[in-house]
Write a structure and sequence with these properties.
Helix content of chain B: over 70%
Oligomer: heterodimer
Number of strands of chain B: 0
Largest interface: A-B, 30 and 24 residues
Largest sheet of chain B: none
Radius of gyration of chain A: 17 Å
Low-confidence stretches of chain A: 195-205
Structural class of chain B: mainly alpha
Distance between the termini of chain A: 36 Å
Structural class of chain A: alpha/beta
Largest sheet of chain A: 5 strands, parallel
Strand content of chain A: 15-25%
Helix content of chain A: 25-40%
Mean pLDDT of chain B: 90
Radius of gyration of chain B: 18 Å
Number of helices of chain B: 9
Order of helices and strands of chain B: HHHHHHHHH
Strand content of chain B: under 5%
Shape of chain A: globular
Distance between the termini of chain B: 24 Å
Number of helices of chain A: 5
Strand order of the largest sheet of chain A: 5-6-7-3-8
Chain lengths: 205, 218
C-alpha cells in the first residue's frame, strides 16, 4: 500500500466540501477521481500533495513520495524546454531528462523557449516533469486539458509504464484514458454546506 | 538548491527578467539629487552617504514584488512546495539570488555614483563596506515581505508598507556607518550593529518566510 486516506474532511475557503472520504492506493494501481465541478477534486488532490491541510482525517504515506501536477504547469517562459526540465530534474535529484523528452516527443522542441510553445505543448512539458521526479505516486489534476488525441495517448502510455514499474497514480479527469483503473466518484462524500447554496467557487475567491 | 539559484539568476538575466531595474532606479535617484538640492558641494558631500543608502534601499524594494509573485502565478511555487527541497532552503536561495541580481550591483555601482554626489574621499571604502554588509539584510527581509503578500493581487503597496519599518534599523546603522566613514570618524560601532542585524535576519528570516508561505498558500 502506497497511500491511504482515512475519513478525510476537507474545506475550501472555510466551507466544508468533502467529508468521510477514504480510499487506499496500491503499487501499480491507478485511481480516477470523478465528480461534478466544485465537488472538491482539486481540494482533495492539493490536500494529498501537502499544499493544504485537512479539517480532520489522516493521509498516510504521502511524505516526499508525491509528484503533483495541478492546473498550472510551473513553466518559465524565458527558459528553454530543456532548461525547464533540467531544473526540475536537479531539484528532484535526477540527472537524465532524455527519457522524459522522449516519452512526450519533446526532442524537436527541446531548445525552444517555453514561452513560444502552444498550450498543448506546454502541457506536455508540464507532464514530462513527472518523469524526472522519480516519485512513486503521481497526483494529477485534469492532466489532459488542451492535449490532442496523440498527446493523450502519450500520457496514457507514460502512466501505464509508471504503473508497471510499481508506481501509482491518482488522476482527476473527465475523459477516458484507456487505462485499467478504478473510478472513484466523490459525489457521495460531498459535505452539506448549508449556508452556501451553490457549488460555484465565487464564495471562496 | 544550486539548481534553483542558477535558474533564478538565468531568469534575471534573460529578457524581461528585471535585472538592472534596481540599478537603473538607483542611478536615476542619485543623478537627480544634485539637481534638486542645488550645486553646493559641501551640502552634497554631507548628505551623500544618506542619499546613496536611501537610493539603494528603495532600489531593493522596487524588485521585491516580483520575487515570489512570478513563481506563484505560473504554479512553480506549488511545485516547489511539493518538491523534496526544504522550503527554508528555497526561500534562502531566492533571497540570495535577489541579492546577487539587485544588492550586489548596487554595492558595486555606489562608489561611481558617490562621485556625482561629491562624497569625501575617505567615505568610499566605508560606503562599500556598509552597503555590502547591509544589503543582504534588505534581500532577506524583503523575501519575508514577499512571502507574506504572495497570494494577494496587487500586493506591492502592502509589501512596501510591511517591509519599510523592518528596513529602518538597517538604514539607520548603514547610513550612519557610511556617514562616519565619510567624516573621518570611527564607523566600527554602527558597522558591528549592521553586521549583527544582517546575520540575525539571515539566520531567522528564512524560517519566518517559509512558515508564512505554507500558511499563505493554504
Amino acid at each position: 500500500m502506497l497511500l491511504s486516506v482515512q475519513d478525510l474532511t476537507l474545506a475550501r475557503g472555510g466551507v466544508p466540501v468533502l467529508t468521510g472520504l477514504g480510499f487506499t492506493l496500491e503499487a501499480g494501481q491507478a485511481l480516477i477521481l470523478r465528480g461534478p465541478n466544485g465537488a472538491g477534486k482539486t481540494t482533495l488532490l492539493r490536500c494529498i500533495a501537502g499544499l493544504q491541510s485537512p479539517i480532520s482525517g489522516a493521509i498516510l504515506g504521502a511524505e516526499e513520495t508525491i509528484a503533483y501536477a495541478g492546473h498550472a504547469d510551473g513553466i518559465k517562459a524565458m527558459l528553454s524546454v530543456r532548461e525547464n526540465l533540467q531544473f526540475w530534474a536537479q531539484v528532484f535529484g535526477k540527472g537524465d531528462i532524455a527519457a522524459a523528452l522522449d516519452s512526450y516527443a519533446l526532442h524537436p522542441l527541446a531548445d525552444r523557449l517555453a514561452g513560444t510553445l502552444s498550450a498543448g505543448q506546454k502541457r506536455r512539458l508540464g507532464l514530462s516533469r513527472l518523469l524526472v521526479t522519480g516519485c512513486p505516486i503521481w497526483v494529477l489534476d485534469e492532466p489532459t486539458v488542451s492535449l490532442d488525441v496523440d498527446a493523450v495517448a502519450m500520457f496514457a502510455a507514460a502512466v501505464k509504464s509508471h504503473l508497471a514499474t510499481g508506481g501509482a497514480a491518482l488522476i482527476a479527469t473527465h475523459i477516458d484514458l484507456g487505462l485499467e483503473a478504478e473510478v472513484l466518484d466523490i459525489t457521495p462524500f460531498r459535505a452539506h454546506a448549508d449556508h452556501y447554496s451553490g457549488t460555484s467557487d465565487e464564495a471562496f475567491l | 538548491m544550486i539548481a534553483l539559484l542558477l535558474r533564478d539568476l538565468r531568469l534575471a538575466f534573460r529578457a524581461g527578467g528585471g535585472f538592472g531595474l534596481g540599478l537603473a532606479f538607483f542611478l536615476i535617484v542619485t543623478t537627480l539629487v544634485p539637481f534638486s538640492v542645488g550645486p553646493t558641494a559641501e551640502l552634497l558631500g554631507s548628505i551623500a552617504p544618506g542619499v546613496l543608502w536611501l537610493g539603494a534601499l528603495l532600489a531593493c524594494l522596487l524588485s521585491l514584488d516580483r520575487l515570489l509573485a512570478l513563481d506563484y502565478e505560473d504554479g512553480t511555487l506549488d511545485l516547489l512546495l511539493t518538491a523534496p527541497l526544504p522550503l527554508e532552503a528555497a526561500v534562502s536561495v531566492k533571497a540570495l539570488a535577489h541579492w546577487l541580481t539587485t544588492g550586489l550591483p548596487l554595492v558595486l555601482a555606489a562608489p561611481l555614483l558617490g562621485v556625482l554626489l561629491n562624497l569625501p574621499p575617505s567615505g568610499y571604502g566605508w560606503l562599500v563596506v556598509s552597503l555590502a554588509l547591509g544589503t543582504p539584510a534588505l534581500s532577506v527581509i524583503g523575501t519575508f515581505g514577499a512571502a507574506l503578500t504572495v497570494g494577494i493581487k496587487r500586493g506591492g503597496l502592502l509589501l512596501s508598507l510591511l517591509v519599510l519599518p523592518l528596513y529602518v534599523p538597517t538604514l539607520i546603522f548603514g547610513a550612519e556607518a557610511a556617514r562616519r566613514g565619510a567624516m573621518g570618524l570611527d564607523p566600527s560601532t554602527p558597522l558591528v550593529m549592521l553586521a549583527g542585524i544582517t546575520l540575525g535576519t539571515i539566520a531567522l528570516m528564512p524560517f519566518a518566510s517559509a512558515a508564512v508561505l505554507r500558511m499563505g498558500l493554504r
